[in-house]
Amino acid sequence: MKKLLLSICAALLAATTVAGAPAAAAAAGCGGTLAIGAVAACESISGTQEHVYFVSVPKANDVLYTMLTRGSGESPRASVTGPTGADVCLITSDAGRCELKGAGTYKIVVSLYFGGTGDYTLGVQSLKSPSSCTTLAASFFSFASTGQPGSLPAGAPGDCFRFNQPTGSVLRLWAPKGNGDLQGDILDADLQYVCKIRYAQNCTLTGSGPYRLTLAEAYGNATPYTLRMSRISNAAGCQVLKNAPFGDPAAYEGTGSLPQQEDVVCHKTRVTAPGSLGVRIFDVQSISWTVYDDAGQAICSKWGREPCALPAAGDYTVISESQGWEPIDYRIAVNALARNTGCAAATGLSWAADALVVHQTSPVQTNCHPFRGTAGDRVVAYASPTSYNEAGTTIVDSTGAEVCPGNSEEDGCVLPATGTYRVVSYLSMWGPDATDETYKLQVRRLSQPAGCPVVRLGAYNEPPAGALGGIRCRTLVVTEPGAYSVRGFDDENYPKYGQLYDGSGLKVRADNLPAGRFTWVVDGSSPGVIDNDTTYVTSFLPAKPSGCPAAAAGTAWKGEYAQPGQVFCRSLDVPQGARLAQFRPTDGVLPEAHLLDGAGNYVCDSATLNQYSCPLNEPGPYTAVLEQRQGVAPGAFATAFTRVDGTPDCPALPAGGTTVQTGADRFTACFSIPADQHGATEKFTYQRTSGAGTARLSVFTADGVRYCRTGDAPERTVTCTTPAGPLTVVLEGPLAGSEFRLTRG
Question: What is the Cα–Cα distance from 528 to 382, expressed in whole angstroms?
Answer without folding.
Answer: 6
